[in-house]
Amino acid sequence: MSDKIIDGKLISSEIREKVKKFGGQLKSKTGKVPGLAVVLVGENPASRVYVKNKIEKTIEVGFTSIEHKLNEKVSENELIDLVDKLNNDKNVQGILVQLPLPKHVDSDKILDRIKPEKDVDGFHANNVGKLWSGLDSLVPCTPLGCSIILKKISKDLSGKHVVIIGRSNIVGKPMAALLLGMNATVTICHSRTKDLESVCKTADIIVAAVGIPEMVKSYWIREDAIIIDVGINRVERDEKKILVGDVDYNDCLKKCSLITPVPGGVGPMTIACLLLNTLLASYPQFGEPTPDLSSILE
């Protein structure tokens, strides 16, 4: 493996080991085990695979995995009733409703129904507001994973110019909040940004999360740029379906200083950070002080 490639699988494995260790210590102290409830609606193939991986990793770290599979025709009220039940279940410390939901269900209404203290996806408006206010909160898993990668490879981001391509509530916006908290200078771009190529050329770090396969080319980036590729796109090539990122990996690998591959980069970090959030959510629910994130990750 090239020394330019950031190994997300390795970093995520280290995080899961630390989550397992701290979870074991929490169990020894309180006699309680963190529980993660995952709600899957419908038969979306990508969601099914993702949920399966989440459940496996949850069990591996010693947490309780609780799965609810619902028919895609489930009513919005039935889904709300399930979320309310999980909110009141003392064996459940984290609740994750897998997106996307069917069109007849209001996703925002469901996500905001989850108690903020059990919102391990970090999507509840209360957690979003705390993040932007610089307060402790549960942070969306993918941006959290990206921030951990950046801390791992660059101890100090002060003054670094980071260009984020993508403005979603799931990645782009929370990523910006995290980077501002790390004293980076942040520019948020998107598919309608004028002269996006020129903006990217000014970046020390590029976080690509726009959902356009292999959009970022080598002539868009500086010689020493660091690239965090959040994109996961299924494309057909040579009569086979493969996964590619939002960055033209083979093209940019020759020019950048560091890059996350797809797959094997940010993806594994997302699940590791879901487990990390479940651990962090468990401390106050078990009546214990929450340790600093840095003390868990160090």
What would your notes on this structure say?
The chain is an alpha/beta fold. The chain has two domains: 27-126 and 268-287, 3-Layer(aba) Sandwich (Rossmann fold); 141-266, Rossmann fold. The protein has eleven helices and ten strands. It has a five-stranded parallel beta sheet with strand order 5-4-6-7-10. The chain has a three-stranded parallel beta sheet with strand order 2-1-3, with helices on both faces. β1 (35-41), α2 (45-60) and β2 form a beta-alpha-beta unit. The two termini are 25 Å apart.
Q: Which CATH C-level class of the largest domain is it?
A: Alpha Beta
CATH architecture of the largest domain: 3-Layer(aba) Sandwich
Q: In what range is the share of β-strand residues?
A: 15-25%
Number of strands: 10
Q: Which of globular, elongated, flat, extended, rod-shaped describes the shape?
A: globular
> How would a textbook summarize the main sheet?
5 strands, parallel
**Assembly state of the chains shown:** single chain
Q: What order do the strands of the largest sheet run in, or round the barrel if closed?
A: 5-4-6-7-10
How many domains in all?
A: 2
**H/E element sequence:** HEHEHEHHHEHEHEEEEHEHH
- At the fourth level of CATH, the homologous superfamily of the largest domain is NAD(P)-binding Rossmann-like Domain
- In the CATH scheme, what's the topology name of the largest domain? Rossmann fold
Q: How far apart lie the N and C ends? A: 25 Å
Mean pLDDT equals 95
- Rg, Å, rounded: 19 Å
The proportion of residues forming helix, as a percent range, comes to 40-55%
Low-confidence stretches: none
Tally of separate helices: 11
